Structures are given as C-alpha cells and as structure tokens.
Amino acid sequence: MPIHDWTVAPFGVVHDFNIAWTVEMQKALNGGVLPDEFYAMVEHAHETQTPGLAITEEAPDESEALEARRRHIVVRSAADQPLAVVEILSSMLKRDPEAVDNFATHAAQSLHSGVALLVVDLFPPGAFDPEGIHGRLWGSLGGHHVQPDGKPLTLASYAAGGSDALTECYVEPTAVGQPLFPMPLFLSTARYVNVPLEETCLAAYAGMPTRWKRVIEDGPRR
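and the corresponding structure tokens:
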C-alpha cells in the first residue's frame, strides 16, 4: 500500500488510525515476528491521560487531549525489561516546539539507557523539525542529517548503544505514494527483527470509515 498524504485528514482521524496501526503492529510482533523470549505491549506514551473528546475536531484543546493519550509499543524481555520502543508520530507533536524538544530529549535518554527505537514519521518537516524528527533527534545525539529533496517523510531505526557507545541508525527517507518498507527493530546491538509496516498498515486501514478513506485517497483540495 502506498503511503497516503495524512496531512489532509483531521488530527483526530489520524490519531484513531495510529491507534489501530499500533495494535496491528503489536499483534504482528507477538504473532511470530518476535522470538518467544520477547513480547510487545501497547502502553501510554505519556504518564497522564485526559478524558476522551470528539476525534474529528481540530480545536487545540481537543487535539492536545488526544496527543496526551498517544500510545506506543514497548518490546520487553521475558524478565519484563524494556528493550525497544516503536513510535508512530502525530502531526500535533510536530506542531509544538516543546513537544518536539521533549521527544528528542526523552528518545536520546532512552537510547543512552539501552532502549532501542523505531520511529515512523509520515508527516513532512515543519518549523520545529526542519530536517524531520530524525534530524532533530540525530542532532541531539551529536550527528547531522539533511532531509533529501523529494523525500520529506522518514522511517528511522536506532540501535541503542548505551551511555558509552555511539547510537547506530538505519534511515529510510520516503514520500507520499511510496511503499512502506519493513524496518529493523533492535532487541540488542547485534539482534533485530523486521517490523512489517506495510502489512500492519493495510490491516489498520481496512477498518477506517469509508467517509475518511475518501478524504485521504482524494488528496489535498485544489
């Protein structure tokens, strides 16, 4: 399935889809992608929650409330030790300079503590991440990234090197209309599994309301 232009959909619709996609990825990871000694759980990406609000509105307070309820996948060992996180980013996070800074800071801290990361960023760079979220995060890790022309979206997988080692990263710049390639998720610096992004995205998209599929598939209004 080619990558859709999610900028045409209201934040709440994207939020709903991201939750469904997160669940499909969890099912795939636990359904055979992960070795038996590991497991994946969907967990809150924030420590606090806000009561649910209507998903189709763009009012800032409602969008922020939905962002506060964002989920991500945490992969743990049989001893319940967190080893890796999968993050599907939202447009709301990228619109907030504090949220961008917090994401980059917390992600870098997690990598330094030994927790690997896979970031799915299907929104173009904005004022607060001019080279994309990967560029912002990679910069906080001491690296430099320039987003290639014609490929504003990014899939990035980080192997956690720990506090005394450099982080290794595998980056796949992409664009609307391109296929979703499998991406590695590191369980250690020497061991990884490939996350089936396209298959899980298809499964999540199949459950979307037809009304919003039409909006997304028709693309930007002219």
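(Above: one complete record from the training split.) Residues 47-60 have pLDDT under 50 and may be disordered.
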